[in-house]
Amino acid sequence: MSTWQQTQTPYGSGAAPPPPGFFPQGAPYPKADGGYPAAGGYPAAGGYPGAGGYPAAGGYPAAGGYPSGGAYPPPYAQQNVPYYGAGAPENNSFNAPENFGFSDKTIRKNFICKVYSILMCQLLITLIFVAMATFHEATKLYIREHSGLSIIAIIVTFGTLIALACCEDLRRKSPTNFILLFVFTLAESFLLAVSVSRYYPDQVLLALGLTTLICFALTIFAFQTKIDFTVMGGFLTVAVIVLLVASIVAIFFPGKLMTLIIASAGAIIFSLYLIYDTQMMVGGDHKYSISPEEYIFAALTIYVDIINIFMYILAIIGASGDD
User: Fold this and answer.
1) Does the pLDDT of residue 202 top 50, yes or no?
2) What SS3 state is found at 10?
3) Which of 24, 30, 104, 203 lies 20 to 30 Å from 86, alpha-carbon distance?
């Protein structure tokens, strides 16, 4: 006889049997010390699980494991919703981290549209400067006679570039970020105008056309390809350093061949940078992505890539032409 049967008295010994289905037939009463459940707690006839249906010892949740207040747990779909932040969520809501939801298509689309809107304004300003320096003789003459303006433009360009790239508060605070970006665009456009004033108009137009086609094709490629270029940040940084050193060496050893080599390498490097920065902006399945709050920084990096591609293509065309 089992331990349970030795310590318990079956209901059939002398007492009137309970109604059918109230207790399991042939089973002993529960213990007398509070073992009976509350009124109506017994299941209906046949409601007990079959043999072995009860969980093993310790199978019930630990103390405090049941929901407070007798509330049912939320549906399974809600249980899979990620939870962020400290404390219990209220009203089925949760505190999301700062960058949560950037993968959402709507937020990503709005961010990309904002970046390209800013970029188009920058390129339009630059195009006006380039057109004036290419086709307007009075502007060409003025630029050549006031070489000191180039030094001021260089200082302003590097100053605003460092401020926007290194100071997160400046590039995220409006309207300070827009003012700095506008000043940088003006200074960079003037330097570009100084550079194109040394070339023939047909060379400048050819460079503009090639740059437009290359940048458009690279942008489409960056959006469509499954290759993740965001992991190439270290390689591209090293490549730019090598290019800078080679450019300094070329100052002391000038030559047409050296110019072609450096300009070709520069065009390739900044073409890869354009793909890299575009995928950083797009985010999604790429390993690294830029925050949606960094629309100024994203527009700045892509603008610099396009300007460098144009300058190196123009240098290739100039070096390839007749002296």
Assistant:
1) yes
2) strand
3) 104
